[in-house]
């Protein structure tokens, strides 16, 4: 599954940082965000938000299948 291309990390406060990253695709970045096992908020990328929602929906169906 894709990889990070480049990015930066900027400390916001004691509990948060702003991460700006690029990747081979929004799907690849969404995958790697999930692997990090950390809470995150998508600030400015509709494509990434769509990719994360697609993964979240698939995981939700895995634990609560339609009846």
Distance between the termini: 32 Å
Uncertain residue ranges: none
Helix percentage: 40-55%
Structural class call reads: alpha+beta
Largest sheet geometry: 2 strands, antiparallel
Provide a count of the helices: 2
Adjacency order of strands in the biggest sheet: 1-2
Mean pLDDT: 87
Radius of gyration: 13 Å
Strand content: 15-25%
Total beta strands = 2
Gross morphology is: globular
**Order of helix and strand elements from N to C terminus:** EEHH
Summed up:
This protein is of the alpha+beta class and 67 residues long. The chain is 42% helix and 22% strand. Helix 1 crosses helix 2.
Would you give an account of this structure?
Helix 1 (26-35) crosses helix 2 (46-63). This protein has two helices and two strands, in the order ββαα. It is of the alpha+beta class. It is globular, with a radius of gyration of 13 Å. The N and C termini lie far apart (32 Å).
